[in-house]
Amino acid sequence: MSSGSTTRRKLLAGSGGMLAGSSSLRAQNYPLRDHSRVPAMDELATVMEFEAVAFAKLSREAYTFTAHGSEGEFTLRRNRQAFDWVELIPKGVVDVSAVDTASEILGTPMAFPIMAAPTAGHAELHRDGELATHQGATAAANTPMIVSNNASFPMDKIAEAAKGPLWFQLYPRQDLNATRALLDAAVAAGSKAVVVTVDQQASYSERQIHNRHLAAPRQVRSGGAPANPYRVPESRLWYEWKYADSVRSMLKVPMIAKGILTAEDARLCMEHGFDAIYVSNHGGRSLDYDPSTLEVLPEIVDAVEGRVPVLFDSGILSGTDVLKALALGAKAACIGRGIRWGLGAYGAPGVQRVLEILQAELVMAMAQTGKPNLASLDRTMVRTQFP
Ligand SMILES: Cc1cc2nc3c(=O)[nH]c(=O)nc-3n(C[C@H](O)[C@H](O)[C@H](O)COP(=O)(O)O)c2cc1C
Question: From ligand 1's centre to the CA of 101, what distance in Å?
């Protein structure tokens, strides 16, 4: 063979060099090679799976802001663990050919005893933010949505986005005129009730701080560390029960206290005119080493003696979780992160799908435990083994 002829080996070597040297090919290949497959929404069967998809799609910072709990995340873990300490006891032979989950809370009709908990800033999960959440919740059997005081969109815009019921969540502010203006705007926009968050949600998230090389810890980024020695923002230090009296006098709609973890506080809430108690530890984002909400729910329900409805959240990710909370006396279960994972993963359809999975799982669990309606749920259907 002459020295000038082209051999197969030379040809391959030459084209390999071209491929290696092509910056456009390298630029295209890199992201394709590095992405794992994102499943289509219909492939997901449980709410927990939405977290993995949201993780794949969101920035590290947005993911961590939703996922984290306070400090070492003891309470975050315990909220989930507590559901494992409650067993469901099926009741023998019962006609459950029609399971009825309808109820009404404080004048808001509900096809299922499930609501969207108030959570801040949905726009970092999806560009349509709370508009998409409201659309998804409405599409899922008119699920009521509690709009966070720190929503990405104003209440009137959220109200325009869909027709389902809305409540508004208030973070107390010392300035009563500012409080009144906020409440008036929320009620004018159609809020059927106001949730006043009374827990001192303020702790550091170690997870965010450990992300320091990927994204600035939020506490540092937004306004710097508080000036007091407790690391609790000034806006949350001054709460007193008399504030509740002031808010009560401003409102014609029902008022709910969110963040209650003791029987004593539940009684005080009723004395101060709250129309419902919302048992919550902020999804493990308030004081770390708070008890799990499921563990304190029975004593609060006992203290309330049926005088006002008790709502519940923190840790719910499945229909059996909802059923356990209802069996222990809650009238409705609220969902924080599950809905955020749905929104971050697929927008409004993701929110709808997460809620529909929970609804379907609740119906199935009620049928399997022999409970045809919400009135038939009580503590005899669970065996609790809290430590
Ligand atoms: C990212 C995030 C933001 C939140 N923002 C608020 C808020 O603005 N107001 C509020 O009252 N609760 C807020 N919460 C607490 C939720 O209302 C709810 O108590 C908690 O998410 C329930 O626990 P779960 O996430 O395990 O369902 C937030 C929770 C998360 C996860």
Answer: 25
The CA distance from 130 to 300, in Å, is: 31
DSSP 116-182: EPP-S-GGGTSTTHHHHHHHHHHHTTS--EEE-TT-SS-HHHHHHH--S-EEEEE---S-HHHHHHH
Whether ligand 1 lies within 6 angstroms of the CB of 278 is answered as no
Is the pLDDT higher at 374 or at 17? 374
Q: Is 283 in the pocket of ligand 1 (CB under 6 A)?
A: yes
Q: Which of 258, 254, 385, 361 is nearest to 313 (CA)?
A: 258
**Tokens 């009404």 appear where?**
104
CA of 280 to the centre of ligand 1 (A): 9
- 13 Cα–ligand 1 center, Å: 58
Of 230-239, 256-265, 271-280, the range with the lowest mean pLDDT is: 230-239
Instruction: Report the catalytic residues.
Output: 282
C-alpha span between 275 and 254 (Å, rounded): 6
Residues 262 and 270: their CA atoms lie apart, in Å, by 13
Tokens 């009135």, located at residue: 375
Give 49-95 pLDDT, tens digit per residue. Answer: 999 999 999 998 899 999 999 989 999 999 999 999 999 999 878 89
Residues of the chain above pLDDT 70, percent: 85
Amino acid at 371: K
Length of the chain: 387
Question: Comparing C-alpha atoms, which of 3, 61, 365 is closest to residue 215?
Answer: 61
Instruction: Count CB atoms within 10 A of the CB of residue 367.
Output: 16
C-alpha distances out from residue 285 to 119, 195, 317, 355, 360, Å: 12, 18, 17, 22, 28
The residues that bridge with 169 in the sheet, in sequence order, are: 195
DSSP output for 321-345: HHHHHHHTT-SEEEESHHHHHHHHH
Residue 197 Cβ contacting ligand 1 at under 6 Å:
yes
The gap between the terminal CA atoms of the chain, to the nearest Å, is 85
The domains found in the chain, sorted by start residue, are: 41-384 (3.20.20.70)
The answer to whether 261 and 279 have CB atoms below 8 angstroms apart is yes
Q: Is 71 helix (H, G, I), strand (E, B) or coil?
A: strand
Choose which residue among 75, 80, 119 to substitute to test ligand 1 binding: the one with the highest number of ligand atoms within 8 A of its C-beta.
119
